[in-house]
Every structure is written in structure tokens, then in C-alpha cells.
Amino acid sequence: MARITRKELKSDKFAQEVGLTVTFFEEHRKDVVRYGAIGVATALLIIGYIVYQRHEHTAREQALTEAIMLQETPVATTAVGGGRTFQSQDAKDAATTKAFSDVVSKYSGSVEGQIAQYYLGSILADQGKLAEAEKAFLQLSEKGDSRYGSLAKLSLAEIYYTDGRADQGEKTLRDLMAHPTVFVSKDQAAIALARHLTGKNPAEARKLLSPIKDENSPAGSVAQAMYSQLPPQ
Predict the structure, then answer these.
(1) At a CB cut-off of 8 Å and minimum separation 6, what does 137 contact?
(2) Has this prediction a pTM greater than 0.70?
(3) What is the dihedral of CA 197, 200, 201, 206, to 10 degrees?
(4) What is the pLDDT of residue 191?
(5) For 95, what's the count of Cα atoms within 13 Å in the CB-facing half-sphere?
(6) Residue 43 — very low, low, confident or very high, per pLDDT cuts 50/70/90?
């Protein structure tokens, strides 16, 4: 993976690309929590690589690196090219959960600890452990850096909607719209909210998508596609 500079990380284009990554998974995964977790975890993987590709490697960066490497290890009965594999998803989940939990425990409050906590929440959500995932994301959203906290809120919103708490999900997404970050743009939050409102309130979904759909950006393309699928006024 090509190295992403700090300047690119802070750019609007990078935020839009992260948003497109999440939206792609949102449009192609059947399980709401699962695609939400994987989508954002994919964005976090980029951030993780930025952390561990630095020239100065601290103990916490190394611990995060090892946890991410475990998360990317495939589940297969036969190793390809002599690489490491897990014999089952359960074995992988146990190893990655322990690895990320250790980083969170040892380096709580650090950037690495926050990234690890997000990964941990994503893994728990993928396992269907929604209450535990919610707890991890909520803690990060309340006590973490605003950038990582915004990613946690995005996944929290998906959990709320999946769990039948639509009002809470909408409130969370509107808060993200009002307080965008480099990792979760206003457009991304608006698109996520519009997706959830399409069925019950298409007029509001149209209102949210209208100012985005004509933008020459990944978010604009996604908004245009969603807008065209709304029922006639």
C-alpha cells in the first residue's frame, strides 16, 4: 500500500475517499452492522498503516502493528506462499480480540489505543455482540480524539438503527453532520442518514442528498445514485 502523507490525511479529498470506502460497503453488505464495521475498519486500516510505517517505532506502535497483521491474516486450511493462516474464524477472532484488547489496556488514551479500540468494536460487531461493540464505540466516542470518535459514532449509528433505535441513530448522524472531521465528512454523515430515511421519509432524504449530488466528488456520485432511486415527488 502506498504511503499516505500527513498532508493528504488532512485533505478534503482523503476524507471523501474514506467516505466512499464506507459507502461502498454500506451498499454491498446485507448485514447492517457487519458492513458498517468492516467499512470503517477498512478506513482505519489505512490509518493503521500510517502509524506503523513511521520511521520511529515505539512499543505501542509495534503492538498495534502486530494486532493489525493478525486481523489481516486469512482463514484457510492451507497456507498460501508459506504465510500464516488461521484454521477457523473463531480462532482468528480470539487472537485478534486479545491482541487489540491488550493494546487498549496497555496504551489507553494514545492514538494507537484508540485505533485498537475501534478495531475491537468492529470485531465484536462482526461477531454479533452488539452490546459489547456499542460499549467499545461509545467509550471511544466520548473519551477519544474527535477524529476517531467520529468514526465510532458512525458505527454507533448503524448499531442504533439495527437495534430499532432509529431516533438515536438519526440524532447521532445529525451530530456528525454538525461536527464533521477529516475521517467523517458532513457529506458522508448526510448520505448515511439519507440511506436510513429513504423508506420512511423520502422527502427528507431528497433534501439531504440535493446539495451533494451535483458535486464532482466520490460523495457526489454516491448521492446522485441514491437520489435517482428515490420515489417521485
Answers:
(1) 118, 121, 152, 153, 155, 156, 159
(2) yes
(3) 50
(4) 92
(5) 19
(6) low
